[in-house]
Amino acid sequence: MNWQTVADYAALSQRAAETLLAAIRRDPRIVLGLPTGRTPVGMYQRVVAECVREYHCFRDVTTFNLDEYVGPSREYFTFMKRNLFDHIDIDLANAHIPDGTAPDLDVECARYERAIAAAGGLGLTFLGLGGNGHIAFNEPGTPFASRTRVVELSEDTRVANATPSTHAITMGIGTILESREIVLLAAGANKRAAIERLRSGEVSEAFPASALWWHQNVHVIVA
Ligand code: GLP
Q1: How much is the CA Rg of the chain, to the nearest whole Å?
Q2: What pTM was estimated for this model as a whole?
């Protein structure tokens, strides 16, 4: 695991944006795994600012979001449009988010897994970190082999995310671990305990982010 500690949130956002843009320059057809939440907002702002100056930045890029709430709210789709998709030249047909409004959610989860595979698998995936160590919506106790599925949200997560939703669709930990490269972003005092637990090296399903120790190409950027 490659650890990078930076001075503040602006530096974290800058480092993350540079990593994302460098990956697109290396491979304009890259498949990205993308997070929502407060942490990646600064990264997206910098990516957008840079991409208005670059020709065809996201034209051939494919993205898969990590998760979405179940129900009509489509909160993460709205978030992604507002923070990224509306401002870049991505083909929305290549910007994938689980459909929490699907009539059969299990079919939707299986479809999502197939779509990732059909795109050639995740190349570079960015993750946020829950205070309890969750990644995407994989709460403590999630098997590391888990795939995309419907989960019930913990009370803590619902409060932290200020959402009325009770369930979500999330990529599994197994799905995420298949990404060729992973960048975990964590900023602020409320992530410090989780970061220290991750740094301890203890690998346990009680702490989902610790699954990242099983992966050979993980960068952790901490502010
Ligand atoms: C949510 C998301 C996660 C995210 C986490 C941390 O639960 N489903 O993908 O990483 O919150 O969010 P934040 O960055 O707002 O602290």
Answers
A1: 16
A2: 0.97
Beta 149-152 vs 167-170: how paired, if at all?
Answer: antiparallel
CA nearest neighbour of 12 among 125, 122, 128, 123 = 128
**C-alpha to C-alpha distance for 119 and 110, rounded to whole angstroms:** 14
> Is residue 2 annotated as part of the catalytic site, yes or no?
no
Distance CA 87, CA 106 (A): 32
| Token output for 221 | 């950027």
Q: How many CB atoms lie within 10 A of CB 52?
A: 10
- Per the structure block, which two tokens stand in for 174? 């197994």
Q: Given the residues 65, 67, 83, 219, select the one marked as catalytic.
A: 67
- Where residue 85 falls (left for φ over 0; alpha for ψ -120 to 50; beta otherwise) is alpha
Question: 121-154, pLDDT tens digit by residue?
Answer: 999 999 999 999 999 999 999 999 999 999 999 8
Which candidate in 139, 178, 181, 219 is catalytic?
A: 139
Q: Looking at the DSSP assignment, which residues form a beta bridge with residue 67?
A: 170
- Structure-token pair, residue 169: 């669709």
